[in-house]
Design brief:
By secondary structure, the chain is mostly helical. It has 14 helices and 9 strands. A hairpin with a 6-residue loop joins strand 8 and strand 9. The two termini are about 35 Å apart.
Length: about 450
Amino acid sequence: MIIDSNLRSADLAAALNRFWQLSGEKIQSIEGSYDPTTGAPVFTIAGKYTARGWTEWTQGFQYGAAILQYDATGNAEFLEIGRRNTVEKMASHVSHVGVHDHGFNNVSTYGNLLRLMKEGRIAENTWERNFYELALKLSGAIQARRWTEIPGSGFIYSFNGPHSLFVDTIRSLRALAIAHQLGHALMEENDRKISLLDRLQTHAMATAKWAIYYGRGRDSYDLRGRTAHESIFNVNDGAYRCPSSQQGYAPFSTWTRGLAWAMCGFAEQLEFLRSIGRFENEAAYLEAARATCDFYIERATAADGIPYWDTGAPQLQHLGDWQSRPAEPQNQHEPVDSSAAAIAAQGLLRLGHYTGESRYFQAGLTVLRTLLDEPYLSTRSDHQGLLQHSVYHRPNGWDYLPPGQGVPCGESSMWGDYHVREAALYVDRLAKGQRYLTFWGETT
């Protein structure tokens, strides 16, 4: 990608104002028309949000988006939407023992509300605070309970089963982080007390070791920063067996949203661990964060910072030198994934802020600037999505193919819309000289 080294957070002020106006309109449209009995909204079809049964991992993004909107604008209507729906609809996600998505659903809702209270952005209320804290304590412990032991390590296993480590889960570690910060622990048989911080760091180290490549000859496709979506283990003896992929093209290509999860997850965990004075794994986290961010910048994106859905997608060859020009979301060969760009932007920004390396921070600003404008920003009033050209599951063919198009395009996803809001809020606060945005809510 071509990084704009002169871009500043304040340069995006006008685009951010327009963005939040459109964002509010989209939230109101969904809140006023979507039928929650059909399941959580996942992605749009011809501009309208629809459900897609696999796991219910997107409802927290729906209501968390309203909380972010309040954070950015101060409009109490959106606080009410987020707070009311969190109370009424999110309890099942707190107690869900079957998924690795607690950081997505519960930190986006209960976590954002607690953060706003800690920051003094909503009124202090002891019982309300206790309610959010209890939900987050339980969520972190339940997430940590999905545990597979491997020799000298372990990991939070995915919904595929105890053999499966997903790179996505690095971002769900925020649930364990908050629960630990609140003084909670996982209690096992015979009152065995398990540290959530230890589980967090053990999982992160397993992800860094097995999901991220470092160019050391691990296999024939070992490119530094390349990311495996899934890592498979033999549950009988804990031995690592092979990489795999559920939503990418192949085990030995890089699904770019998985890459983005690693970029963002490692960067924000570096920030969290520094906040509590734990630096023992900093070198490993930094190596993983830098490797994945470098791969994104150098190998995964078009010139404007937007990636196609997988770096090994089989029809990319027909696009020629696609990295030398802006991404083409309406091409006839392979779809782009703007949701990967939204997640990656925040990872680049946070890593650059953490290390002081302007290359990463400027890359994040460059990606966000692209997303804040058309064709990615959805400006049509009849389209409920905010960030267009998101892809969910290309191998399964779940994404909507508009008439006359060769690949999915023009549609939005709950995770893409949420994460572009989160990245926008991060930069908006920096531009206005406001409190630095963290998922746990720093009080100073």
